[in-house]
Amino acid sequence: MALSEVEELEAELRGLADDLTTPIPGECLLCYLYRMLEFGCRRHDFTRRYQRLMAPRATALLRRLSRMGGCCCECEIFLNAYQPHPRYFGLDEDGEVIMEPMPVCHGVRRGSSQPCCLWHRRPRCS
């Protein structure tokens, strides 16, 4: 039985979505999540996808990110837990980090859920 045009188009779109949201080999979690924010904040869907595809042994990843302040979504990881390292990003006249263009991920070893050197922990508030 042949697929209808609609079913073929849906299958093609699913394939494209999969290609666009697959982590690049060696890409760190935070560079991947920052890249995925282009598609909107989806709770922890992208974190789970990264963990499943790139770091399957990092079973405590969501708990760790939650303890760091990223308990509800990927946006919170960037608001509360990690920030861009100013050494690798430009600064505007007010001293704010310029995120565009995004530098290329410096990479991590296979199976790692740690960020590359483009990111560092936000200081904790007391």
Fill in the keyword field for this structure.
mainly alpha, two-stranded antiparallel ribbon, 5 helices, 4 strands, globular
What features would you describe in this structure?
The chain has 5 helices and 4 strands. It has helices at residues 5-20, 29-36, 45-54, 61-67, 74-81, and strands at 82-84, 90-91, 97-98, 119-121. The strands form 2 sheets. A two-stranded antiparallel ribbon has the order 1-4. A hairpin with a 5-residue loop joins β2 (90-91) and β3. The longest helix has 16 residues, at 5-20. It starts with a helix and ends in a 5-residue tail after the last strand.
Beta-strand content bin = 5-15%
Uncertain parts: none
Looking at the chains present, what oligomeric state does this protein adopt? Answer: single chain
The overall pLDDT average reads 91
- Write the element-wise H/E pattern from the N-terminal end onward: HHHHHEEEE
Short description:
39% of the residues lie in helices and 8% in strands. It has 126 residues and is mainly alpha-helical.
SSE order and pairing:
Blueprint: H1 5-20, H2 29-36, H3 45-54, H4 61-67, H5 74-81, E1 82-84, E2 90-91, E3 97-98, E4 119-121
Antiparallel strand pairs: 1-4, 2-3
Helix pairs in contact: 2-3
